[in-house]
Structure formats: C-alpha cells, structure tokens
Design brief:
The chain is an alpha/beta fold and 234 residues long. Helix content is 39%, strand content 21%. It has helices at residues 15-27, 38-45, 64-73, 91-99, 112-127, 161-172, 180-188, 196-210, and strands spanning 7-11, 31-35, 52-56, 82-87, 104-108, 135-138, 141-144, 150-152, 155-157, 178-179, 217-220, 224-227. The two termini are 22 Å apart.
C-alpha cells in the first residue's frame, strides 16, 4: 500500500513567503494546501482534512490567533496540530498563541531545516497517540518511518544507519538524479566527510542487501545515483 502524503495546510498572506513554504513542502514530499486568509481556510476545512496547520499570526481580517482559537473550539479540527509563525522578538504573541491552543511556534525569519524539524516533531508526537504508522514505499519493499523497520517481501532487512538513510532518501525522491554532494549532505550531513568512494561503498552494501531490488539504484556517471522502478519482468 502506497504512502498517503501528509497534508499541510498553510495560511500565509505574504506571497513570497507562501511560495517558499509551498516549495519546501513539496520538496519534503508533503501535500501542501495554501490560503492567504483564515476565512477561506475555514471554509476549506468544512469539507477537507489537514494533518497539520501552519498559520501566520498577522493575517488580514480574521487574525491567526482567532483562527487558532476557532480551530481548537471546533470538535472536527480540535485535534489537528497547529504551528504559528511569529515575528522575531514578539514575545507577547508567542505566549498568546500557545494560550489559544497552538502546539508550537516558529519565529521569522526561519531556516528550512528548522521549520521541517518542527513539523516532523509535531507530527510524530501526534501520531504516537493512536494514529497509524507512516509507511514509505509499497510491496515488496516498505519502510516504517516510525519504527525504522525495513521489509522486503514481508521479511525484515538489517540495515545500518547510513544504509537506512540512503534507502529513505531514494524512496522519497524516486526517479530524480541525486548528486554526490546532495547525498553527502542528506545522509552524512556535518557529522562526517563523505567522499565519492565512501558513498559508493555504502551504496554497494545497500544494493547487495536489497537483493534483486538493488538494481533499482542506478549509477548516473559523473553525477550520482537515482532510484528507478523496474517493471515486472525487466
């Protein structure tokens, strides 16, 4: 069964910031929905569901604070986690946001990594209270992102941390060429220096452990690698 993308509802009236957030959500493999005012978002929520709501405090018309309060008072949306975007140094609004029911806040300007980390942390916190696990991929290969269990044809696969990170990276970006520098940054980060040889050795181990599915990892000469699904019989 394929993973249903997590839907993030964003309410932000700054067009440039909204565009950046939407691009970030798509890159992170979320399903983003955007509105520039809270009333339009409330109308949308009458017939749709969001997994998390990201709202600016300083919205025109219905303020972000009022929007948050209405969401938490409505039984159909009260359990949806909310992150508020606040201006730097605006301590009063931060406190008010939390008092109205917001689960977290992020101060502008923020980094992409910080926002994604806050979103991921909040989603995990809510999911551990009875929601289903996040499963990436589909038969015969699945990765449970909450438990870290990787299965091939229902059998558990023993991967080390770097191999696991490589697999998740590929499954989130199927068909895209991932350069050596991107792979080094995404999997190794600032913790260690990953040369091309380091990446190639780790990639070889992952391919071997995946068995026949290892052929889905294709080397792109001079650039890096990509995950290319194979048709049955190929």
């Amino acid at each position: 069964m394929a993973l249903l993308k997590t839907r993030i509802l964003t309410v932000e009236d700054d067009e440039n910031l909204a565009k950046l957030i939407l691009e970030l959500m798509v890159e992170a493999d979320y399903d983003p929905v955007h509105f520039s005012d809270a009333n339009a978002a409330l109308e949308w929520l009458k017939n749709h569901k969001a997994d998390l709501i990201l709202s600016d405090i300083g919205l025109p018309g219905l303020s972000g604070m009022q929007f948050c309060r209405l969401l938490k008072e409505n039984p159909s949306t009260s359990s949806v986690p909310i992150i508020m975007l606040t201006a730097a140094g605006d301590e009063r609004h931060k406190v008010e946001a939390l008092k109205t029911g917001a689960d977290d806040y992020v101060v502008k300007p923020f980094s992409a990594k910080e926002l994604l980390a806050r979103i991921e942390s909040l989603l995990r916190r809510y999911r551990y209270h009875g929601q289903v696990d996040r499963v990436l991929g589909e038969e015969p290969l699945t990765v449970n992102l909450d438990t870290g269990v990787v299965e091939v044809k229902k059998r558990k696969l023993d991967l080390n941390l770097k191999e696991y990170a490589l697999l998740v990276m590929f499954l989130k970006r199927k068909g895209r060429i991932l350069t050596y520098s991107f792979i080094a940054d995404d999997v190794w980060g600032d913790d260690a220096i990953a040369t091309r040889d380091t990446i190639k050795v780790t990639m070889h181990r992952l391919r071997t452990k995946l068995g026949s599915l290892g052929s889905c990892i294709e080397a792109v000469p001079g650039q890096g690698y990509r995950w290319q699904e194979k048709k049955a019989g190929s």
